[in-house]
Amino acid sequence: MPELPEVETVRQTILPSVTGRQIDMISPLTPGVYLSGGLDASGSIITDVRRRGKYLLLDLIPQDGLHGPLIMLVHLRMTGRLLLRERDETPPRHTHLRLRLTRPDQPDNPIWLDFHDTRRFGRVWLLTADPEGRPVGAPGGYDALGPEPLGPEFSAAWLQGLRDKRKNTSLKAFLLDQTVIAGLGNIYADESLFAAKLAPYQSVGTVSDTQFSQLVDAVRQVLADAVSCQGTSLRDYVDGWNRKGRFQDCLMAYGRAGQPCRICGTVMRKMKLAGRTTCWCPDCQSS
Asked: Rounded to two decimals, what is the model's pTM?
């Protein structure tokens, strides 16, 4: 599943090409993937592309005078992709939604933004925006998202405040909880715990203030490094121009069970935590 670095990379790669363009045509190709709720984005101008956790938000200004600002909310789920195309080619299999985008001063030079999803778990919602720019009626869980890990609200103090409530939760499950931190998944939870030298099975209630500070620093650094590498491409993920990321070459823990630790040489182990395969070094992460 694309996590924060992958979704952020998609945002960064499509932003320059779609901002200021008008949605000239919307073509839903698969029932149930594009959920418009009776709203119509045709003719709307895309003014920005934002990210919240693993969600992408395309801010739209309708031109018909019938609606206020709209938001096209996208969740890629397991195998979703947003792909830019400069030619009107026959879309590949598993393309479920196409947007034709034009510039007012270049109506004959469109581009296409396609939503492609092999497993068809991803969704695109069209929603109204409230005065603060938040989507109204977003799917369950969106409004409960925790702080952005690269933003100022994510801090050791925030995690310390949750310690007593989650004292029996493993650190791995804690990091995967989207109400604790928005955007982390299995890859970057493993990588962050390795960087912080914390055992994934350690209970939250036993984590010291110093260790929480180490964890916050590790999460920030790992995510920043992954974004700079345009994400992790293990199978399905590509950016908005169909290019793979490079962070898979930098992984220290995720998927490395049975291999020697890159730091100490100890054989990496794996176990199931929160229903997810978890990899760690029993020497470096012996907390």
From this structure: 0.96
The ranges assigned to domains in the chain are: 4-128, 156-280
User: Is the torsion defined by CA of 73, 105, 9, 34 positive or negative?
Assistant: positive
Q: What is the DSSP letter of 209?
A: H
The residue whose two tokens read 């396609």 is 114
pLDDT, one tens digit per residue, over 141-186 is: 999 999 999 999 999 999 999 999 999 999 999 999 999 999 999 9
4-18 and 209-228 helices, crossing angle to 10°: 40
CB atoms within 10 A of CB 150: 15
In degrees and rounded to multiples of 5, residue 216 shows phi and psi of -60, -45
Fold of 156-280: Helicase, Ruva Protein; domain 3 (1.10.8)
pLDDT digits (tens, 9 = 90+) for 64-121: 877 899 999 999 999 999 999 998 888 889 999 999 999 988 888 999 999 999 999 9
CATH homologous superfamily, domain 4-128: MutM-like, N-terminal (3.20.190.10)
Question: Which ranges in the chain belong to alpha helices (H)?
Answer: 4-18, 156-161, 171-176, 186-196, 209-228
**DSSP string for residues in 142-203:** STT----TTSTT--HHHHHHTTTTTTTSBHHHHHH-TTTSSS--HHHHHHHHHHHT--TTSB
SS3 state at 125: strand
Alpha-carbon distances, residue 182 vs 54, 62, 185 (angstroms)? 7, 29, 9
Q: Report which of 230, 254, 227, 225 is spatially closest to residue 244, judged by C-alpha positions.
A: 230
Q: Annotated catalytic sites, by residue?
A: 2-3, 54, 276
